[in-house]
C-alpha cells in the first residue's frame, strides 16, 4: 500500500523536477558538449542532483540530463583544466565520503562550508549565498507561521545536510532523514511528514512544479555562510585552480547569468 502510494505520487507528480523518482542510484557520466580536451584527462564531479536550480534532472532532447548552475560552474572548471567533466549523482550524505576516498575529485552541491566539514575536507572560496525556508502543504500554511509552531511536528529532512542541524534544534521535532529532496517532497505531498526545511531557491523551484505545497511564514534562524566547492583535504593545488576559475566567473558576471538561466530551466515544465 505504502509503495503503491509513492508510485501513484510519482505518476501524479511526474513533473520534471521529480524525474529521479524512486530510489534508483543513478550515476551519470556526462561531458561538457562540444569540447574534447586533447589531454584525455577526466575530472569527476560529485553532486546530489535533487536541488533545483543548483543541480537537477531535466529531460533535454528526450534525454535525462543533469543541469543547473552548479553544473555550469563545474563545466568551466573542467574547461580551465583542459579536462573532460564526468558527473556522478548520489545521495547528499555520501558526498564527503566519496571525496575523501578519491572516488570524486570535487563536490559542487550547494554545499555549506561549515566548521565541522572543514575538519574533513577543504573548500574553495564562496560562490553564492541563500536563505532557509520551511515548506508545508497549502492547507497548513497558517498553522506554521512561526518556528515555535514546528515544535513536535514531523519533518522531512535531507540526511547529512545543515537542515538536519537546524531541525535538531526544534524541540520535539520528529525527523525523517532521506537521501534525496525529491523524495522528501513526495512525503510532504502525501502527508507522511508535516514540513521540510530547505534553501529558499530550492523551495521556490519545487513549489512552482508541485501543486499543493507552499513556503510557510516560519523562517529558520540560521546564519548562512554561503556555498563553496568541496575538495579533498590537502589538495591545495586543486583549491587554487578552482578559485581561479571562480574569480574569472565572478569578474565576468557569469554566476548571476548561470543562476538566471538555471532558474528559467527549472521553472519550465
Ligand atoms: N546547503 C545545505 C548543506 O550544505 C544543503 C545542500 C543540499 N544540496 C543538495 N544538492 N541536495 O548541507
From TrEMBL:
Pfam families: SBP_bac_3. SMART domains: PBPb. Its main location: other. GO terms for cellular component: cell envelope. Coiled coil: none annotated. It comes from the Bacteria. Residues 1-19 form the signal peptide. It is found in: Cell envelope. Keywords: Signal. Residues 42-262 form the Solute-binding protein family 3/N-terminal domain. Belongs to the bacterial solute-binding protein 3 family. This is Amino acid ABC transporter. It comes from Paenibacillus rhizosphaerae.
